[in-house]
Amino acid sequence: MGQPVERESGEAVRSELPPGQRVQRGWPVTHYGPVPRFRPERWEFRVFGATADGEKHCWSHEEFTALPYTTVVADLHCVTKYSMLGAEWGGIPARTILDIAPPAPAVTHVMVWAEYGFSSNLRLSDFASERTLFATHKDGELLTAEHGFPLRLIVPHLYAWKGPKWVRGVEYMAADRRGFWEERGYHNIGDPWKEQRYSYQEEPGDGPEL
């Protein structure tokens, strides 16, 4: 396990919740499909697609969790309308992955891939936020399997479905395309402060070009 090298205090907590949200005490378990079994000897994190060097980059679980570790204090806003405030997330910043396996200049989006072929698309700017984190811990404790162990993505400024559980890799893309929930009617961007819940709310430019 990497040792903490940085502590981010996070943004000041806003005085109000995003539109339509309510404060949640505790952390409900919400996901689609079964909880995958973690097999550390088979686990691999991959970065592929439009990488700067044209190569695929891979880490074992031991190698990935040895990367520099940091913490971010941030809220989690679920599209089902609950918000969990002020959690401390620990893990590997997305920026670290961008630094050690950089994207090609043409990359504008990423697809985050998880177990069972689950996926979520993000703008590169959202993925590159200093607060986007591949989380291994919450409030100083390892994530449980139900909450995404061994790895889940946390993107505090977007709805929580944009941060999949059980992440296995990142694909760099030179054009946007919809992920699992985005193909099933959820908003392509997912900003909770704009209440971007569903695809019918999308404005021109919010989604991939047809």
In short:
With 210 residues, this protein is mainly beta. The protein is built from three helices and twelve strands; from the N terminus they run E-E-E-E-H-E-E-H-E-E-H-E-E-E-E.
Write a structural description.
The chain is mainly beta and 210 residues long. The chain contains three helices and twelve strands. Strands 1, 2, 5, 6, 9, 10 and 11 form a seven-stranded mixed sheet that branches. Strand 9 and strand 10 (141-142) form a beta hairpin. The radius of gyration is 16 Å and the shape is globular. The termini are far apart.
The DSSP helix count reads 3
The portion of residues forming beta strands comes to 25-35%
Q: Mean pLDDT across all residues, rounded?
A: 90
Counting DSSP E segments of at least 2 residues, the number of strands comes to 12
H/E element string? EEEEHEEHEEHEEEE
User: How far apart are the first and last residues' alpha carbons, in Å?
Assistant: 44 Å
Structural class: mainly beta
Sum up the overall morphology in one term.
globular
Radius of gyration: 16 Å
Largest sheet: 7 strands, mixed
Report the helical percentage: under 10%
* Unreliable runs: 1-15
Q: What is the topological layout?
A:
Layout: E1 4-8, E2 22-23, E3 44-49, E4 57-60, H1 61-65, E5 69-77, E6 82-93, H2 94-100, E7 109-114, E8 119-123, H3 124-127, E9 133-138, E10 141-142, E11 152-154, E12 167-173
Parallel strand pairs: 1-5, 2-6, 3-12
Antiparallel strand pairs: 3-4, 5-6, 6-9, 7-8, 7-12, 9-10, 9-11
